[in-house]
Write a structure and sequence with these properties.
Layout lengths: L1 H5 L3 E6 L4 E8 L4 E8 L2 H9 L6 E4 L7 H9 L4 E3 L2 H8 L9 H14 L5 E2 L5 H34 L1 H6 L5 H10 L2 H15 L5 H12 L6 H35 L4 H6 L7 H10 L8 H8 L3 E6 L3 E6 L5 H9 L10 H11 L4 H22 L6
Parallel strand pairs: 1-4, 4-5
Antiparallel strand pairs: 1-2, 2-3, 5-6, 7-8
Helix pairs in contact: 2-3, 6-11, 6-13, 8-9, 8-11, 9-10, 13-15, 14-17, 16-17
Length: 387
Amino acid sequence: MPTEAATRAAVIGLDVGKFSHWACRVNGRGEVLESGPVANTERDLDELFGRVDAGTLVVVDQVRNIGSLAISRARLAGLPVAYLPGIAAHGAAKLFAGDAKTDERDAAVIAKTALGIPDSLLPVPRRDGRLEAARSMAAQRSHMVACSTRDKNRLRSLLLESCPAFEALTDLADPHWLKMMEALGGPWGIVDAGKASVGAVTRGADRSRIDAAIAAAASSTRPSEYQVMAENPQVRMLAGRIRESAGEAARLDAEIAALLAEDGTYACLLTVPGIGPRTASELVIGVDIDDFPDHDHLASYCGIAPRNRQSGKSISSVSSSRQGNKRLKNLLIFSCNSLTRSKGRFGDYYRSCRDRGMCHGEALKAVARKRLKVIYAIMRDKVPYSA
C-alpha cells in the first residue's frame, strides 16, 4: 500500500460524515484540483468517482458506518481504497498551517498526508460475508458486555447504599442471584419475602452464601421505607437487564463459533495454549494476516510491542505501548492468565520473567508478546500448534 500510494497521480481525501462528506482531490504534486461537499448517497458518490482518473486513491478517515458507502462505491468504480486512522490524521494536522477545525481542512489534510506520508495509511481489506457477519455479532457482543458492566456497577452502588453487608456477599456472576433480585428486589425486599419465596426462586443454587447474605441484611440497620420503596424496582430492573445481557452475549458467542467453525485459521488458533473461542474469533475477524510482513508488525497493531524512548544519553527507556487495537490487546494479555501455572513453554517463560523481577502484569505482557510469534506463524501457515 505505501509503495503504491507514493506513485499515485491523484488522491481523494474524504472527511466522511453522516449526511455528506467533504472531498478534496489533489494531484501528484499536492495541488488541490477540487474541494467541496458530496452527499452521502450512491448517485453523488458515483458521480465523484466517475470523473476522476483510473488509479486515483480514495482515502477515508473511517471504515465503518458512515464511511462504508463511500468505500463500497469507490471499489465499484474500480478505485483503490485506503484508511488514514483518526489519530494519525489528528497528528498530521499539526504539520499544516493554521489551527482551524473544518471539514474542508480535514479533507485536505487526509489527501496530502496520504500523498506525502504513504506509510501512515492502512489497507481496507475485502472481507467475505461470513467474516463480516461474525464481525457484526462480535461488535454486538462487546456492546452487551459493556452494558452489563455498567448495570452491574449501578446495581452494586445501590446495594452499597442500602446494605454493605449484603453487597459484600452478592455474586452477580451467578444467575440464581440475578433471578432472586429480579423477582424480589433488593436486600430488604428479599428479607421481607421470607425463606419460602427465596427458596422458590433459587432452586438448584448454593444456598449457604445466599442464606449468609440474607442473615447479614437482617442483622443490619434497615433504611427508611421510602428508600426501600425506591430501591426495589431499580434492583429488579437492573438484575433483569444484567441477566438478559449475559444470555445475549452467550447466544452471540455460540453463533460466532458456529459461523467460524469451518474456518481453518480459527480451528488452528484454538490449538494454541490459552486461546479460547472468543480470542480466536477476534483474531480471525480483526486480523488479515496478509497485511503484516512479520510478527513485529502484528505486535505493533495489537498494541503489545514495547515502545522505545531515547534522547541522546539523558533518556533511554522501554515501556509498554498504549497504541493498537485495544480489544485484541486486552484479550491477548489477559488470556495468558491461564498459562501462569502451566508446565509448558509459556508457563516456564512466565516464571522466568517473574524471577527476573517483573511484576505480574509485565510478565503477562511478555508472555503475550512471545505467544504472538506463534500466533502469527499459525495464521500465516494455517497449521495447528505443535509444542
